[in-house]
Design goal:
This protein is α+β, with helices and mostly antiparallel strands and 153 residues long. It has four helices and five strands, in the order βααβββαβα. The protein is 34% helix and 21% strand. The longest helix has 18 residues. It is globular. It starts with a strand and ends in a 15-residue tail after the last helix.
Length: 153
């Protein structure tokens, strides 16, 4: 199946929102203490504003019928312009393990290079081992760890 990576457009909003909800439900299942079950509310207005934001890059992976199969959102670091942060990446569950995530990562890496960034960075939840394994296979390495100490109420 031929896949194309292209900039996201307003017409992609319904598909991207479904992917955001899909990703959120996976996070909520892994960390119900951190993610509310109902998920984020991301309006059309929010999406339109994000697409206009020059510090963000939204890309979608589409099939030959322009059906959105995945997306990636990157943004320049607020603290270091040499870093491009991969804030979100999701491939529809039905299309995983077909190389789409790799194509999206390649596009994010190309975006970072084009922007003159020295690195592409992301955060990933320890409770989600599949994405961690994907990033490691792609060649990413652990830079630092963020730790927590739950406080009983």
């Amino acid at each position: 199946m031929p896949i194309t990576i292209r900039p996201a457009a307003m017409a992609d909003y319904p598909a991207v929102i479904l992917l955001i909800k899909q990703m959120h439900s996976e996070h909520a299942a892994a960390r119900p203490d951190r993610f509310l079950a109902e998920g984020p509310t991301y309006t059309k207005k929010d999406f339109a504003k994000a697409l206009r934001d020059s510090s963000q890059t939204w890309l979608v992976a589409v099939d030959t019928d322009d059906h959105v199969l995945g997306y990636v959102m990157c943004a320049r670091s607020k603290w270091n312009a040499a870093i491009l942060c991969l804030d979100e990446i999701c491939v529809d569950k039905a299309y995983r393990r077909q190389g789409i995530g790799t194509l999206l990562m390649d596009a994010a890496k190309e975006t970072a290079s084009r922007m003159g960034a020295s690195s592409l960075e992301l955060e990933v939840w320890e409770a989600t081992p599949a994405p961690i394994q994907f990033y490691e296979r792609y060649g990413m390495t652990v830079q630092r760890r963020r730790m927590e100490l739950p406080i009983s109420k």
